[in-house]
Amino acid sequence: MISSFLAMVVFPLVTAVMIRWAAARRRRGLTAGRAVHFRCRLDGRRGRLLADPRLDGPVFLDRSGRATAVPRGGTALDATVATRAHATFEKVGLRYRTPEGRLVSLGLGTHDARTLGSWLAEHPRPATGAARRLPVPSAPLWAVLALTGALFVGLAAVDVALLGQHTNAEIVQVNRDDDSCAVRWDGGAQQATVDCDTATARPGSRIPLIAVPWPFLGEAVDTRTTPTVAAVLGGGLGLLGLGGALVVNPLACARRVRLARRPGAADPVILPPELRGGAVHEDEWPPLEHDLSYANLAAAALHGDRHRAGFGVTPPRPRRSGTSVPPSGWALFTLLGTGAWLPLVACTAGILDDRFHLGHWRYPVLGTIGVAALARIGWFVTDRSGLCGPVLRAARAGAGSPENGDASGGEWRPMRYVRLFRSPGEMVLVLFRSENGEVAAPLYVQQIARSGGRKRRTVGGPAPVGEALVHDTGVGPLVCQIDGVRYLPIGRAVEAAADPARTRRHLLDIAGSHRRAIGRT
Questions:
Q1: Model confidence over 253-288: pLDDT tens digits?
Q2: Which of 72, 81, 6, 86 is nearest to 338 (CA)?
Q3: How far apart are CA 396 and CA 90, in angstroms?
Q4: 436, 370, 300: which is closest to 9 by C-alpha?
Q5: pTM exceeds cut of 0.70
């Protein structure tokens, strides 16, 4: 019972507290003027945002060494959940407008987004007084966790050494397969298995041991190998944490500052893609790497439908609700459709039935995984609960006509779409403005729920290209009406302009499945 409580409550709580504490340390270090390097994304590029007093201002340094200045004093526009394809966790996308009017998108953790949003919006204060010695940069989370682990091992060792019962136990059985001995003490009232020297141990002889105090009553540790293991484990974690906080992290921060200050490090100029003005024939595979315009994506969708083997796409089965899937089933899947149920069920079964003979170790190991899965389910339900109401209201109200708007107060906009999908379970609508013609750039990418087609062995979905009436629910998802059928969304829509590089990678990944396999006739 105690082990289950520690595994399912204490350990996850300590981990969550440590993550928030590390974010709070970065916030305090930023306020105090210390060097804090945030791991983040800038317009889809991975790297670190350097808030370092050795630099003239905040600088983003990506993995290739390119530096981009992010001046302070601008405006933090909004912070939204940035969805990613096949992502286990979602992060916050912070949109920031620089004082020069440039719009950038930062992808960070929740607490770091709040810290950077308010810090970037502040006007930099002029430096006053003589420059003081630069303090040590804020320690990274892994170093803090290593020091915490060393402290935990040390406290546990002190607790056992001072509060444990030192006694001589009688050896009952010697197991030479795993170098352990079954012992008993207190007149046989207490029994346990401890490590021992099987070469010299004999049944009936006595060995010194320490009976572990509460909350692990009934367990014991030997005095031969356990102190050495505790010293090596605690000392190794302590040296790792101190080395990371005092040596590795300052050297890494100094290296990033040198890269940001080197001659020639300037903002990368991202040129817009060349627009090719004409449509591509449906039998041709377009060069998507150079252009993701409506013409190219439409050609890829038509090419995929023409040459795809296996399942086909037909209009969804007619329903009284007029939606592609039943609204009640969609709401249930939206709230509970996370893959964390599988590890939760597996861990629960492993704890209740020790089929693989894991012993008492199954409680902390499987319990920690189970609690993480349960926390993921709870977060998923909490995050998705705000999406159901607006989507269901839009689905029930219907589109009507784009001029009259929606009965619920929202507006339905006519847009052009391209339907792409890698598999029947992942079908997306790429939405474009109607007035921009064949060279229009993607505006939104919205994944839609899977539905059954009208014919056998088909998937329900719209035509590869066409016109749609699009309703913005205001909370992220988009409801699209195509040919009288309202397609319910999965998750939030991805705004292409918020992260162009990530959107391009996502579309290229999906559209690549529409290429005809080599050797097919």
A1: 888 888 888 765 544 333 333 333 344 444 454 556
A2: 86
A3: 29
A4: 370
A5: no
The whole-angstrom distance between residue 46's C-alpha and the CA centroid of its chain comes to 14
Distance CA 124, CA 128 (A): 12
8 Å CB contact between 233 and 153 = yes
Burial code of 231-266, b = ≥16 C-beta within 10 A, e = fewer?
eeebeebbebbbebbeebbbeebeebbeebeeeebe
Distance CA 169, CA 205 (A): 8
Strand pairing class (444-448; 451-452): unpaired
d(CA 84, CA 41) in angstroms, rounded, equals 13
Whether domain 2-139+253-261 has CATH 3.40.50.920: the reply is no
- The contacts of residue 388 (CB under 8 Å, 6+ apart) are 331, 334, 335
210 three-class SS: strand
* Domain regions of the chain by residue span: 2-139+253-261, 144-230, 294-334+386-514
Q: What interhelical angle do 110-121 and 11-31 show, nearest 10? A: 10
Q: Which of 316, 349, 281, 270 is nearest to 104 (CA)?
A: 270
Q: How confident is the model at residue 516 (pLDDT cuts 50, 70, 90)?
A: very low
